[in-house]
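STRUCTURE:
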């Protein structure tokens, strides 16, 4: 029986291949995209508008911008906290394009309500069902609660 010979790779080649593989794996996880909202808050409410501010992270570094929208419901509420007419209710929305820097986008959007018939005193507008959505990544977050204009 003839003898068999085995070829053995030099240890330096194996070590270099291991280092290259490790760097490739670390680099791919560093560029991973995992969009999520850090916050989305109501920052201002008037008699016909609502402003929402947000910060979204995990966007990676390959995009220059993302498209963000806010949707919700505006309705007239009487002093007894009731909604007297179905006609005094409308869906609202606003959207914009926001720059991505270091994998994050920050900004604010203002939605306006044009109710018909108008919401006049003593009735006031109530904002509900607010959702902020990144339409680029289909990531969204809800803002719970009902929001009214300040009385001061």
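SEQUENCE:
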């Amino acid at each position: 029986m003839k003898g068999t010979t085995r070829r053995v790779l030099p240890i330096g080649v194996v070590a270099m291949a291991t280092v290259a593989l490790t760097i490739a794996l670390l680099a791919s996880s560093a560029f991973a995209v995992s969009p999520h909202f850090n916050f989305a808050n109501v920052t201002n409410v008037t008699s016909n508008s609502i402003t929402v501010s947000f910060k979204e992270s995990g966007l990676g570094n390959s995009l220059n911008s993302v498209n963000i929208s806010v949707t919700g419901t505006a309705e007239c509420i009487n002093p007894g906290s009731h909604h007297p007419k179905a006609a005094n209710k409308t869906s609202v929305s606003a959207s914009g394009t926001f720059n991505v820097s270091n994998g994050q986008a920050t900004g604010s959007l203002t939605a306006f309500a044009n109710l018909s018939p108008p919401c006049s005193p003593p009735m006031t507008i109530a904002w509900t069902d607010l959702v902020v959505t990144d339409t680029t990544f289909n990531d969204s977050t809800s803002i719970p609660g009902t929001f009214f204009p300040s009385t001061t």
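REMARK: The radius of gyration is 27 Å.
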